[in-house]
Amino acid sequence: MVQITFIQPDGGQTTLDAAEGASVMETAVNNGIDGIFAECGGAMMCATCHCYVDEAWAGKTGARVDGEEDMLECAAAELRETSRLSCQLKLSSELDGLVVHLPEEQA
Amino acid sequence: MAVAPVNETLTLADLTRDPYPVYRRMRAETPIVEVPAARRIFLTKAKHTKMVKDDPELFSSDDPVTPMRRAFLAHTLMRKDGEEHRRERMAMQPAFSPKVIKTDWADLYRTIATDYLDRLPRGETVDLFTALCGPIAARILAHILGLDEVSDADMQRWSQTLIDGAGNFGFADEPFEKSDAANAEMDAVFDSLLDRHRAEPNNSALSVMLNAKNPIPMSQVYANIKIAIGGGINEPRDALATILFGLLTNPDQLEEVKRQEAWAEAFEEGVRWVAPIQASSRRVTRDLEIDGIDIPEGVTLMTIQASANRDEDLYEDGESFNVFRKKAPHQAFGSGPHHCAGAHISRRTVGEILLPMLFERFPNMKLDRAEDVVWSGFGFRGPLNLPVRLS
């Protein structure tokens, strides 16, 4: 198991134990985290699982995958350097303690 | 291991009239069931419909015998999988993004809505379905696609003709003769607009596709625009009419929606309650089993999102319209790679703009007689009329 923390736009935090290999999106959806809709179920087609990786972790989550950038352009909230689609962030032991911030809006 | 039970008696006419009692019983008794009248195996539970939509390798959108290909005179992205589908879809997706709606379109939509609301008569019964829901959906889509010059009537006629052709499973001649004629009209109009969009690039779908660095073939540009016409008018039209019906027949909820400005919630509940697109098809690519039922390679499954959206596993009293119900994800926009490309647009146009404007303009809008509203449709569903008095 690895730990992951979701921070809401209002500052509210939730820390969860998550399975390695699961995506950040799946972890959020399975635990009812507000602010991750993930309507397309991880197919990189809806941009409703947008999140910002915390600056401290930005170097460890790797580069955006092929096609992710184009879909992020279609996200509702501001696009930042740290923007990712959480369906493309797979949890691993290197990401134990990961912190992600949720955007103001997803749709 | 068991084969799916067969429902021999159910007809498409039954489903067109009112599918909901049928689906409710299927969910309870035969959630996976073969329906010979539709030549499909129906999946009626949310967990099954989502699983199928989310796995395009086992459940392909590519249907080799689809009448859609004949109707559109093209193999369209709706029936493609994988990279081919993604490339064609992403070619126009920027035109449908929330940011473009905000920066390019929101003011125009408000102006259009004001204009269309101005035309509605007060103090007499008016059918909002034909006087507003259809035309305004057509007008908004025309701008999004870059077809500003096309009339509401032509947009709606093309859309219905394409839908009728794509649903012509018996391959009768007449619907295809009509879709052939509509295709010729559309091609001629698109041809006439290319110079304008090349000279003045903008964020409409046609312009975005034409002016892309690495454009998709012209045949697919046209096919994409046609898919958007076929799939982008009925849905917002029916969503708007359905939500209005839900609110007008539940005045206590309407008051609370106004008080809280819960228009987004009203939108989500309306499309959950009666999903404008009720069912989709997927072809099974190898022998498999779903919940103990054998599903052989090659069969076509029908995911019934209309039923998934009322599934007792997710919703308490899902049969009723309740804006303030406990939140649960619905599948009105589908799931997986073919998740509705217009989801963001419909939320912004219908939910954020049209609904509040309508009730601000006509705060005492009343439905004449709810029992006069006729609902229809198996694949697509919504009211066919909405007689209201505006004041």
From TrEMBL, chain A:
Superkingdom of origin organism: Bacteria
CDD domains xrefs: fer2 (cd00207)
InterPro entries linked: 2Fe-2S_ferredoxin-like_sf (IPR036010), 2Fe-2S_ferredoxin-type (IPR001041), Adrenodoxin-like (IPR001055), Adrenodoxin_Fe-S_BS (IPR018298), Beta-grasp_dom_sf (IPR012675)
2Fe-2S ferredoxin-type domain segment(s): 2-106
Cofactor (UniProt): [2Fe-2S] cluster
Pfam families for this protein: Fer2
Keywords: 2Fe-2S, Iron, Iron-sulfur, Metal-binding
Coiled-coil portions: none
Alphabetical list of Gene3D superfamilies matching this protein: 3.10.20.30
Family: Belongs to the adrenodoxin/putidaredoxin family.
Protein name, UniProt field: 2Fe-2S iron-sulfur cluster-binding protein
Taxonomic path: Bacteria, Pseudomonadati, Pseudomonadota, Alphaproteobacteria, Hyphomicrobiales
Automatic annotation (TrEMBL), chain B:
Key word Cytoplasm present: no
UniProt protein name: Cytochrome P450
InterPro entries assigned to the protein according to its UniProt record, in alphabetical order: Cyt_P450, Cyt_P450_B, Cyt_P450_CS, Cyt_P450_sf
UniProt similarity note: Belongs to the cytochrome P450 family.
Cofactor requirements of the protein: heme
Keywords assigned by UniProt, alphabetized: Heme, Iron, Metal-binding, Monooxygenase, Oxidoreductase
Domain of life: Bacteria
